[in-house]
Amino acid sequence: MELKRIMIPAALLTAAAAPADAKRPADKRPNILVILCDDLGYSDLGCYGGEIQTPNLDRLASQGLRFTRFYNTSRSCPTRASLLTGLYPHQAGIGRMTFDDGLPGYRGTLSRNAVTIAEVLREAGYTTSMVGKWHVAETPLRPDQRDWLNHRVFHETFSDLCNYPVNRGFDTHYGTIYGVVDYFDPFSLVEGEVPVREVTEGYYITQALSDRAEQEIRQHAQSDSPFFMYLAYTAPHWPLHALPEDIEKYKDTYTVGWEQIRQQRYERQQQMELFGQAEDFLSERQFDDRWEENPTAEWDARAMAVHAAMVDRMDQGIGQVIRALEETRQLDNTLILFLSDNGCSSEVCQNYSPGENDRPDRTRDGREMVYPRQKEVLPGPETTYASLGAKWANVANTPFRYWKAKSYEGGVCTPMIAFWPKGMDRHLKGTITTEAGHVMDIMATCVELAGATYPERYKGHEIIPMEGLSLVPVLREGHREGHREGIGFEHFNERAYLSADGWKIVRPGERAPWELYDLNRDRSERHNLAAEYPDKLAELVAAYEAWARRCMVEPYPGQAKTQTK
Q: Do 416 and 70 contact (CB within 8 A), yes or no?
């Protein structure tokens, strides 16, 4: 399939083809490029043990720093809210999803008592741009939602315009407002405030986002100002949509099944000493069935092949971006941060209702999208709508248990790569750090590097003090004094708290008991120590409850009803 590059506005084309000797002498502050992917498994990348071909991200890791204890908020929109604002997601207004639950921490759109990185850095003289998925604005459903999703009717806005990226600090935005998309013809695609009504033949959103990012980077090279770019891919979030040539690379890779792929990933993690000298850190597989007895093995192998193809295409696009930075002589002084919004998803989206919320049921030209509940149609093309499911998610998140939306490590711990040739200590390049970080730390990192001021007030609104801590000391010295009071997690009553000394409590549900793990000795949460260390458990539960009150987790939806039972 021949992929056609997207059209960009004339204002960006004026200097899009920057010469190889382009220089920016006026400002020595670094460019900052934050690349966020969607639902990537902990071990999907080659540099974290995976078999998927990711040479470009592996290159960043070999010349940069890999984090093994970098945390998110366990789901897409809360993580994005936290990353963009330097706050916990509830403080930023998105404790759950992009629907208004009528409570301060759950309004479903970025709070005006929070500022974005783009708002802060633009005030400090940075050019700011966003390419990709937004998913932090309330998106109320319309009566004709099904026809709208299928491109049969047209509306001018997908959310209140005041909540679009270009009205939250970004000079430009090309991408989607909603969270889930048809990769070949995405719903809610916009250029700034203007809906993109049609896409070109051969369109594939991962490639389109990479093309746009490359073009903008070449244009930024002509400016006297440094840039902040937020490149937010939709890949590899479901539906399983990929290009045939990318799927072909992996057509036989996963026919060996869940157990063998998981074991191979674990062995590679051991060989690369991802967790230092630890020898036994693979959690039990969460399922008892055997691949040899799997009646849908062909479908399941194909599903994982499509997932791999989606990651592969994203890595190819990141290679384009790196080459653009090299050719315009910007790479040396550009900080690149690559991470995922949460662990791989266990969802079986083919069991959802077609044509509802953000899930189309027909293509633009009227072809039915098959939701293969019986795995009767192989995934990959636009006319299918499916996802991996829990068994492959358990593989993707090797060595951890669980997945997206859970507060165990498989849900909240992600790969994170930091690359900055000019700014990182040379002894740290190509190494692995056990320093704990959180997505909310990215704001503080950007503020420090930009020499910016995090405001107390912005456009007439009181701004909540920043929660994140800068990662710059880790990049320059290999260590920082981290979150001394610990880090809290809550999403749909999945709760956890991580102490500064490496102990973690998890409560997997409203009525479940708290569990206690020592991550220093038990990286994959295999041994619940709650009964052995009741004092430590009580200490962390008290810390969690204080955090929940302070950071707008409470009151949460349904809390009063629960307490009266």
A: yes
